[in-house]
Amino acid sequence: MDLSKFKADRTAEDEGVWVALDGDDTGARVKLARIGNRRYREAMQRRMKPFRRALRAGTLEEATAERVTAEVLAETVLLDWQDLALDGTALAYSPDRARELLLDPALRDFRDLIVEMATDIELYRQQDQEEAEKNLPPSSAGRSPGEDGRTS
Fold this sequence. Notes:
Elements: H1 10-15, E1 17-20, E2 29-32, H2 38-48, H3 52-57, H4 62-76, E3 78-82, E4 85-86, E5 89-90, H5 95-103, H6 108-118, H7 126-134
Antiparallel strand pairs: 1-2, 2-3, 4-5
Helix pairs in contact: 2-4, 4-5
C-alpha cells in the first residue's frame, strides 16, 4: 500500500480551505482549518487550563465544554465565509461574529456541520488540494492555477 495517499497538506490544515455548504445553491461557503491543527491544540490547552481539575474529576459541565469548544473553533477553525445570511440579513465575517454564531444554541446544527467538515480528512489531503487548485475558476486578477494560456 502506498502511504502517499495519506499525506496531508499542512498548509491547508493550518490556513484553511474553502468548502461549499452542503445542499446550498447560493454559493455560500466557509473557509475551514482542520480541527486539531497547531493553533487549535494550543488554544484548546490554554482555554481548558482553568478547568483541568474538573476535567480530571469528570465534573466539567457540558455547557462549559461546549462554550470553550465553540470559542476555539471560532478562533482557529472557522476562518472566513462568503454569502452567509441569518434571517435574510447578510453576515459579514469577523471572528467575533463567528463566535456568536457558534455559541448560539439555535444554530447548533451549523456548529455541528462546521465540526463535521473540519474533521473530514479528505479536505486536507495533499493530492486532493492539488486537484482542487487545478479546478478553481479563473480569478478576476488573471489566470487560474494550472491554466496554460492557450485558447480553445
